[in-house]
Every structure is written in C-alpha cells, then in structure tokens.
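Build the 3D complex.
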Amino acid sequence: MKNSALRVEEYSSDLDVRVAPKDAALSMAHIYIAFSAFLVGAIAGLLQGLVRGGMIELPSWLGYYQILTAHGVLLALVFTTYFIFAFLFAGMSRTHGAFSDRLRKLSWTGFIVLTIGTLLAAVLIILNEASVLYTFYAPLTAHPLYYVGLTLFVVGSWISGAALLAHYFSWKKAHKGERTPLFGYMTVATIVLWIIACLGVAVTVLLQMIPWAFGLTDEINVLLSRTLFWYFGHPLVYFWLLPAYIAWYVSIPKIIGGKLFSDSLARMAFVLFLLFSIPVGFHHQLMEAGISHMWKFIQTLLTFVVIVPSLMTAFSIFGTFEQTGRAKGGTGIFYWLHKLPWKDVRFFAPFMGMIIFIPAGAGGIINASFQMNAVIHNTLWVVGHFHLTVGSTVLLTFFGISYWLIPHLTGRKFTPFLNRLGMVQTWLWAIGMFFMSGGMHLIGLLGAPRRTAYTTYQNHPDALVWFEGIFTNYITIAIGGVILFVAAVMMFYNFIYMTWLAPKGDTEFPISEPAEDASETPKVFENWKLWIGIAIVLILFAYTIPIYDMIVNAPPGSPTFDYLIK
Amino acid sequence: MHLHRYEKIWLTFGIGSLIIFLTVLGVSAFAMGHQPPSHMAKVDPQNVRSEAPFDEPGLRQIDETTYQANIIAMAFTYQPNKIEVPVGSTVRFHVTSSDVVHSFTIPNTNVNFMVTPGHINMAEHTFTEPGTYLVLCNEYCGTGHHHMQMTIEVVE
Amino acid sequence: MSKNNANLETNKKHVPTETDSSSLKGTFIFTMSIGLFIVLSWSAIFFLFLNRM
Ligand code: HEM
Ligand SMILES: [Cu+2]
Ligand SMILES: [Cu+2]
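Done.
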C-alpha cells in the first residue's frame, strides 16, 4: 500500500520533467523521416521475400538489386540513424536539461546535412544509378554523387553527435565532481564509438572512392577499401544496439516499477563496448585472401571479448526484473515473473526483443568463429541472423520506445487502444520473424545465397531443395515476410496515431532513478580520455600491421565497373 | 564494484565457454590445418590471363588423386564453366577475378570463399561422392549475379 | 540429511544478499540456460563444419 502510494507520487512528479518543446520539435523531425523510411523499406522487404520465392516478378523498370539497395539503406542506415538521434536528443534534453540555443542550432544543422545526404542517395537509388547495395563494395561503382550523399550522411551524424557530446560536457562542467546521469554516460559512449568507427568509412569514401568514381584516379585498392569499410561495419551494428541497451538499462526498470540492478556494471558494459567493438572488423573478412591467418585470429579473439558485456547485460537486465518482481511480493524461482507488466507494450515489445537476442547472439558467436564462418558466409543464414539482431532486438526495442517517446513529444496520451495495437504488432512481428528468420537460417545452412534474385541455378537439385522443404523453403520466408509487412504497416499506423490522432495529454518519459550502488561507482568510469586512449591503442594494435601490408604489398588496383549494375 | 556471486558463476561459465570455443578453433586451425581461406598470392586484376596459372584456366593433375583447378571468376560466369574429376579426388581450387568481387561456393561443403580482384584465393576439397556439384557466386556482382554458376562432375 | 539442511539454512543467514526478497535464483537459472543454448548451438554448427570437411 505504502509502496504504491509512493510510486504514484513519483510518477506524477516525473511528468513535470519534460523534454523541452524546442528539443521535442527537433526530435520529432527525426521521427518523421525514420518512419517514412521504415514504410518504404518494409515494402521493399515484402517484394524481396516474394521475388525470391518465385511468387512474383518485378516490373521491368524495377530491379531486384535496386530494391535490395533501397531496403538496406532505408532500414539499416536511415531508419536506425534517425531514430537513434531522435531518442538521444530527447533523452539528453530530458535528463540533462534543455539544449542551449547554440547547441540546438548545431543539431538542426546536423539534421539538415544528414537529410541532404539521405535525399541525394535516395534519388540515385531511384534512378538505378546506385544499385551497389548498402555496403557499396568496390570495384562495383555507383554514380559518384552517391558517395557524396553517403559522405554528407556521415558528416551530418557527426555534427549531431558533436551537439550531444557538447551538451553532456557542459552539464558535467556545471556539476563538477558529480556522477553524470546514466543516460548521458551511455549516449557519450555511443556517439564516441560512432565517431571513431566512421573514420574508416570516411577514409575509404573520401580518399579512395570519390576520386576514383569521379575519374581523378584510375584504380582502387579493393582489399584496403573493404578493410576500411569493415573497420566501420562492425561498430555500426553496436551503434544500433547500444541505444536499445540504453532503453533497457535506463527506461525499462522505471516502466516495470523498479530500479536498475547496478550502476557500475552498466557503465562498465558500455566502456567494454567502446573498447572492443572496433578492432574486430576482420570477422567479416574471414573468407577472403590477402589477410593472414594470424591477424584474422587476433581479431576473432577480440570479437569474443566484446561478447562479454552482452553476457553482463543479460544478467543485469534479468536481475533487475527479478528484484523488481520480488520487491512487489513475487516469490519462488520464477513465480515473481507474474509481477511484471506483461500487458504493457512499453515493456513487452523490448522484452520480446531481449528474448530474440538469445538466438541472435548465439548465431553471432557462430558467425565469428574463424574457419567455421565458411558454413554460413554470405548465405541466407546471415540475413536470418541480422533480422534477429537489428531487425528484431533493436527494432522491437525502438518500437517499445516509440510508444512513450512519440506521445511524450507530441503532448498526447498513451491510450489503452494504442497499447492493444502495440501488443498485436509485437506478436505479429515476432511470429513473422520466426518464419522468415528461421527459414533463412536453415535454408542458409543448405547453401542458399544471400543477395540473390530468384534462381534455380538451371534446376540444379541442390538449389531445388530450397523450394521443396517443409520448413526449409523460400515459401516459408515469403510467408514470414508477409506477416512482417502487416506488422510494419501496423507500426506505421501507430506512428501516425501517436503523432496526430491520439487524445491530447501527458505521457511520461520513463527514466529510472539511480541504482542502489550508484554512489559507489568508481570515478575512473568518467575518465573518457583514458577509454578513448585505450580504444585507439587497441585499434592500432589490431590494424596497423595488416593495413600497412595491404598498402605496401598491394596488387595493381581495379578500375570502375559501373556498367555491371544497370 | 560488487559482483553478485551468481553473476560471477555466470560470467565464469560464459567466458569459460568462449575460451573453449577459441581453443577448439585455434587447435583445429593452426595444428590441424583447417585454416580459413587466406591465400596471400596476388595478380594484376586487369591482366589475369597474361601470367601462369590463369593463362590456361582449367584442371591440372598434380598426383594420382590430387588436382589443381585454376579458375577465373567474372561477371557472370566462371572459366572454365565445368570440370570433371574422378571420385575420391582432392581438388585445390585457385580462383581469381578479372573484374569485381565474387565468391566461389559449393553448397553443402566448406568450400565458400571470397574472390577479390588482385588476389588469388584458395581452398581444397575431397570429393568422396559422385555427382554433379553446383558452384555458385554468393557475393553480389551485378545485374546477372543470380545466373553466375558452374558445375563439377565427380565421376566413378 | 536433515542436519545438513539445517546447516545450510544457518549458513544462508550469514549472507545478507541472499534474503528471499533480493534472491537472484531465477536470473541465475535463466542466464545459465542461455549459456547452455549457446554451447549447444555452437557445437551443432561445429560438427556440421567437421562433417562437411
Ligand atoms: C517488413 C519486414 C522485412 C522483410 C519482409 C524483410 C525481408 C528481407 C529479405 C527477404 C532480405 C534478403 C534479400 C536477399 O538477400 O536477397 C532482406 C535483407 C535485408 N534486410 Fe530486411 N526485411 C524486413 C525488415 C528489415 C528490417 C527492420 C531491417 C533493419 C532494420 C532489415 C534489414 C535488412 C538488411 C540490412 C538486409 C541486407 C541487404 C543487403 O544484403 O544488402 N530488414 N530483408
Ligand atoms: Cu561484426
Ligand atoms: Cu555474384
């Protein structure tokens, strides 16, 4: 009784802590673009599933690899990046106070540059001048302006990131000696990770691809370019994952009416991500020539280290659930689970994401396992894998965030109707993903390639198997894709509803109070110079010698190949 | 910083498993030779046919049961497009690309490696069952990527 | 047996973090099952790899 009375009070006082209106407008601008990209990307996904199953044929003016490029760019790059900045801007405003006018202007500049880059890339994809997929591996060549678009995208994200960092450090300056709020701490780790990671892609795009695509240089060093890309490509996936983890660590405990289990462990997990998620890119290049076994193995080892903070997260988050369930009177080994708010989509959608992260993470360990990578490399298994990681764990968490973030920003109510829609949406997404991703994993083990339009390889028996299995069948994947598409349209409607239709009112932006042990968190965690220094040392260790070798012992380079994509 | 006793056990178990995985992989790779394909040889990607072995792509017998297959991957086929070996043969595939990045992949085997221009990549496989093996490209290489394939006849 | 159990009980009282309201037994079982799942799926693919050699 006493407890619940306390909570109501807390809740109402928290309602007063709002994202400042001007910051809310900035955050919403990102949300509009994120969900528009999401809808178009989902349409492309649906078509891909149906085409690969041989169920439809695309009209002659639309190429399979064109929509696949659009799908990857819109969902994996545009939706994620815009949503992440929407979440981080709003969260920083909520936890560190309103942005100063100067910093807000900087953030808008970032938004505009990001958006010009996005539009430029989108136009070139629509014109079929950039069907090089979202990884744009050389020496396939897109229209030179496509690379300019990508550059603007990265520069825009850096400007926005700089605004977030500046906001955090000015708070820190004004609160000398205090422990920084967990949201800000995690935001800084995420943004620093992003900035260091992007250096790789910036170098290959600016120094290699743009001069080469514009015809200023004749040749490109393909292996170097791939290596710089994957130096960026792996931390990219942590750039998607860490904001989801922020919601798990900072918002979910509040939603379930509890407190985070440990502040120092949470910070330590983020430091480990910052340190170990960059010097590991070779785990995407295990099957290629020109990189020695030894360096591949060293980066495999570092990859295994970056699994540890996720093991810690599993314990912290489930521990938070258990302590909350018990504090509410739950008992037994698992009976306390009944005390969790299963009917609240703000909890349930991210929770589903967490459960899906179990097979996703197990798959990731398999993928990174050195020579074993040959079993799954570039098969549909990989596509099944990242539809679990980013396509489900991250996305379901982002959906879960949307249910309070958007109404909070638009000054509307999170209604029971919306909650019901959200619950159905979550289930549909999970079920669709079970069929699509499950099918992809298994059919991938049977050798079905990723990034490949409908083909039976001249009716070769090994390929026909992919159309004949009971579950291991392209049709399973297509069915899953249809269910997912329905769920995606529902989510888009939820976005519309929360933005324009829901009744006016207040929705809380949930931020958990500090964990019990927060006062004991070692000061060293706030020492960013130290962590960035160690991260750089690890990167130099893992990359200097192999990259030196790639440059000094490079074979003659490759010319452009733009005619192959049209 | 305080770690709960259960968390210590969990992390010990988790990290212990990772160490075992790495040890198994390391021993299998470095002591037993099951390395991932990481050949270091290079070629000029714009003149692959001007030097051995790709001046004469195809199969070469090395000893009684061992062959070397020198293959050029290109948009959207392989050269040669078909090879034939007796059952029980071990084939060493040496593959390079004359244009963009491809792969050389035989479904249901561990032969699945990238073919990057400028490099020769390599893998070995022993064919113990007769049949027509499919080779496909699983790295996007352009509009005709899904047509890129060849076959290996393994005959009695 | 019963004596042992009684011993365990008294032992438990010495560990303040193990009171019922803050027990993490469920978390422990949950995470260890994740571990088991990881080991099993990894082993399955490793044997597939060996099989395809
Ligand atoms: C409506 C739901 C979705 C469906 C039906 C769907 C379907 C597909 C299919 C069938 C492919 C494989 C195409 C191929 O390899 O030939 C694919 C690739 C991909 N999907 Fe999705 N997907 C969906 C949602 C998502 C989401 C939410 C994300 C990420 C946020 C995502 C990210 C990707 C990426 C990065 C690729 C790889 C693109 C490439 O290989 O270049 N998808 N999707
Ligand atoms: Cu990775
Ligand atoms: Cu190809």
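Chain A has a mean pLDDT of 93.
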